Amino acid sequence: MTRRRNKKTSLNKRVLYRIVALAIFSGIVIASLFYAVEMMHIKSKAEDVLTEFMEQPEIKKPDNAPEVYYIGTEAAGEEYLLDAEKELLEYYRTNKEKIPLKHIEHFRRQQIDIYFAAVNANEIYEDESGEALLYTDVSFTTGTVRTATYILIGVVAGLSFLLYGASRYTIRILDGKDKSMKDFFSNASHELKTPLMGIRGYVDGWRDGIVPQEKACAVIDKEIDRMTGLINDILEFSKLDGGIAEPHMEENDVREILYDAVQVIEAQARKDHIEISLELPEPMLCLCDEEMLFSVFSNILTNSIRYARKEISIQAEFKKSPSHIKIIFSNDGKPISKEDAAHMFERFYKGAGGQSGIGMALSLEYIKLHGGDISVFTEKERTIFQVCIKKI
Fold it and tell me: Which residues cross the membrane (predicted)?
């Protein structure tokens, strides 16, 4: 079982990490392509300028090509050359035999980036022997491209770091949802099997003549109601989890919804000799979904009847808060433990009483949709459920 869970978790990691790796790779490819294309463009432009310059009948510096310069290769006047020109001249003298005339070469050293071609010096300088070097200095342009590429890589690295962090957060959420979904269906299947097993047992007992028909039918009817309620709760939770459960807000008197919920549970209360008392102000108007609030109140009352000894009281505070209605359900049963109170609104939590389900968890979600909250605690040896909902 553990191996399967780890495999599922690793699947989320593999998928998201591959997405991150693909994003990083794409960013590097884009930065590399940007650098390569820009450098090719610079090279092409430099070669075109030098070629056009050399193809003129009389090679001289035209007005439309200010980026082309020339220097002689003889020692005379060398002290007036720029550092880049000195570096270029030294390179040419060292590799002169390998460089044919009028062939465009690329010279790069540290921050110097030059395209040049050697020509006969007498084509530029009269009565000059040897060669002259035509060149265009693209150091500034290529430096700008490199800087832009480094910035682009830095941006990609920063975004990749953020994406990696986001992916780890997403993995934790996905793994948590996977576990929650697995636990939910595991618990739901267990809860559904319990009434089915009870039904099957009493059907077999009735068929074999062990259990009277009346008793079997009563138990089967009770288990069917229990299973129907659980299925309805599961369906409602699926709507909530899918984001399609929207409260239909209308103006309602909360007292009327409470009266309806009490009326439904009253027969069971009489059977168990439990008195239900209500102290409600008039009126208690709020914008709410009547069906959702009815479900909340019914779940709380059902839970209260299960543990109450003799009495359940329902009170409301309407005027104390300018923005909220506070409804308090209390019963005189055994006070709820701190552990049970802390987990009361978790799905399928099984408390000390052995009961489990999703009714209270569903109630909390309904109240949250109304911008309110539910809490449970012990006060004066009584278990208190407190519901807060917004007024109109």
Answer: 15-37, 148-171
Cβ neighbours of residue 297 under 8 Å, at least 6 residues apart?
A: 257, 258, 261, 327, 387
Cβ within 8 Å of residue 353, ≥6 positions away: 306, 307
In a domain, 66, yes or no: yes
Q: Is residue 193 part of a domain?
A: no
User: Which residues span the domain enclosing 295?
Assistant: 250-390
DSSP 121: G
Q: Which of 16-20, 73-77, 141-145 has the lowest mean pLDDT?
A: 73-77
> Cα separation of 389 and 60, whole Å?
89
Q: How many CB atoms lie within 10 A of CB 343?
A: 14
Report the predicted TM-score, pTM, of the whole model to 2 decimal places: 0.53
270, two tokens: 């009489």
CA pair distance 295, 286, nearest whole angstrom: 16
d(CA 211, CA 194): 19
* Residue owning tokens 């097993």: 197
Is the CB of residue 227 less than 8 Å from the CB of residue 194? no
Are 262 and 125 members of one domain?
no
Average pLDDT estimate for 294-310: 89
Instruction: Let me know whether 128 and 262 are in one domain.
Output: no
Beta-bridge mates of residue 62: none
Q: Is residue 236 part of a domain?
A: no
| 229-261 pLDDT tens trace | 777 777 777 777 666 677 888 999 999 999 999
Q: What gap in Å lies between CA 160 and CA 390, rounded to an integer?
A: 44
Task: Give me the number of domains the chain comprises.
Answer: 2
Residue with tokens 């102000």: 281
- 94, 127, 147: which is the final residue of a domain? 147
Q: For the chain, where are the alpha helices, taking DSSP H only?
A: 2-54, 83-94, 139-207, 213-241, 254-271, 290-307, 338-343, 359-369
Strand partners, 136: 68, 115
What type of residue is 66?
P
What DSSP letter does each residue of 241-295 carry, written as one string? HTT------EEEEHHHHHHHHHHHHHHHHHHTT-EEEEE--S--EEEE-HHHHHH
